[in-house]
Every structure is written in structure tokens, then in C-alpha cells.
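Hi Y.,

Following your request, here is the sequence exactly as I used it, all 99 residues.
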Amino acid sequence: MDLTALQASVLRISDIYAAEHNIDRDRDWALLKLQEELGELTAEHLRLSGRARGTPDAQALGDEAADVLGMLLIYCDRAGIDLEAAMQRKWLSWLEPKP
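Below is the corresponding structure, written out as C-alpha cells. Let me know if you'd prefer a different format.
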């Protein structure tokens, strides 16, 4: 699945979730949720590395990473960011031959 298709699917799921829970998903909400999900990913990382209480769970780490990516895609939509273009400009240009 390409990034545009993934983002479209995530946005559809977010629409369903927001309707069911009466959530206003503006740009601030998306950024705050992204930060929340990053905190949850950090907590799972610490558990897996033995630096936090709880049962280590590699699947939970993957689930939290998916939540971070999902919220990043939602934030980019709300902020008007073309993530594919930004990735090309910021990261993938390093793979292009230098003049």
C-alpha cells in the first residue's frame, strides 16, 4: 500500500472513530494525540528494554508505532502537509545523484 492510500484509509477510520465518540479533530487535537501516542510508544520501548515496570510486549510496541504513524498521517492532513513531497524533499533526495 502506498502512503496516499494508507493516509486515506487512516482518515476514513478516524472519521468513524470521531463520529462514534463525538470528537472534534482539529490540527491541535491531532498534534496532541500524536504526542500522546509517542509517549505510549516510549513506554513500550522502556518496558522492552527493562527500564520500566510491566510485561514486555513486542506486539504492543508495533501497535504503538502504528498509532504514531496513524496520528502523524492525520496531523499532516489537518496541517495541509503533503507528506510524500516532504519526504522526497527532506529524505529521499539524499538517494539522488549529486551534480
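The mean pLDDT is 96.

Thanks again,
Q.
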